[in-house]
């Protein structure tokens, strides 16, 4: 019957950290203009650099905006509005993001949906005004475009990115067209719900099910659902995860640690 692969996008297929960090800085300037008056190009470079380190904590794109502001508050004491910024380190963000996020959302009086809309709008404007540099700020991991083009497996994209951005990158950068009904983006529901929908479809009965993700927390959510016991789970070790998370994944029997070269072979 063949294989079905449900693939995360950012951190599995595409390294979008450069683009999402630059978009988040642009969006942060729109959202908090007063705070970002004093942010010069040197500071911006520092932010983008730090964002690569903290990227593993991001589940949904809008969190990039929160991280950008938090990094600025860590560096510039007199603009601080959050109780958590003083003495905070990048390691502290990696360890405690799930606790920090609700605190800063409340202290900055932010709304999740409004930030999602703003982040999407800033990206849309960048794409409309200069598609080439927007595309160029992303890169597919080596071998992935060919693996997708020549995949003999049935492939679905299951991502917290907005579908239109995943679709644009697949077409423009990887030269791959995946039918829109096979791309589940932000707003289609939690990944566990989508995996349940996929496995119930009549045309998928009897297929071997595989889910490739770079967030350990997401894989642990799948393990909690007995209905999803039929899925083979993989943590991509080239994606946005930490050494500590990879070690933990290696100790969980359900999860297979996957290397990029093996991933490309599997799809073919």
Automatic annotation (TrEMBL):
InterPro entries for this protein: HAD-like_sf
GO molecular function: SNARE binding
Superkingdom of origin: Eukaryota
Protein name (database record): Ribosomal RNA small subunit methyltransferase G
GO cellular component, one term: endosome
Any GO BP: SNARE complex assembly
């Amino acid at each position: 019957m063949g294989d079905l692969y449900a693939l995360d996008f950012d951190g599995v297929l595409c390294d979008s950290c450069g683009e999402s960090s630059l978009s988040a800085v642009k969006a942060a300037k729109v959202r908090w203009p007063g705070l970002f008056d004093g942010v010069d190009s040197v500071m911006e470079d520092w932010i983008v650099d730090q964002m690569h380190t903290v990227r593993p904590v991001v589940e949904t794109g809008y969190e990039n905006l929160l991280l950008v502001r938090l990094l600025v508050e860590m560096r510039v004491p007199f603009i601080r509005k959050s109780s958590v910024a003083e003495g905070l380190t990048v390691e502290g963000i990696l360890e405690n993001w799930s606790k920090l996020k609700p605190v800063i959302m409340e202290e900055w009086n932010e709304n999740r949906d409004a930030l999602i809309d703003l982040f999407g709008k800033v990206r849309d404007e960048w794409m409309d005004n200069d598609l080439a540099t927007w595309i160029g700020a992303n890169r597919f991991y080596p071998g992935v475009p060919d693996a997708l083009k020549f995949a003999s497996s049935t492939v679905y994209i299951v991502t917290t990115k907005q579908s239109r951005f995943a679709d644009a990158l697949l077409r423009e950068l990887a030269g791959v067209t995946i039918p829109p009904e096979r791309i589940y983006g932000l707003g289609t529901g939690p990944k566990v719900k989508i995996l349940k929908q996929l496995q119930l479809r009549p045309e998928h009965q009897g297929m071997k099910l595989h889910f490739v993700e770079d967030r350990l927390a997401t894989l642990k959510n799948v393990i909690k659902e007995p209905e999803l016991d039929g899925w083979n789970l993989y943590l991509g070790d080239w994606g946005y995860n930490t050494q500590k998370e990879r070690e933990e994944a290696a100790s969980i029997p359900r999860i297979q640690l996957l290397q990029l070269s093996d991933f490309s072979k599997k799809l073919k």
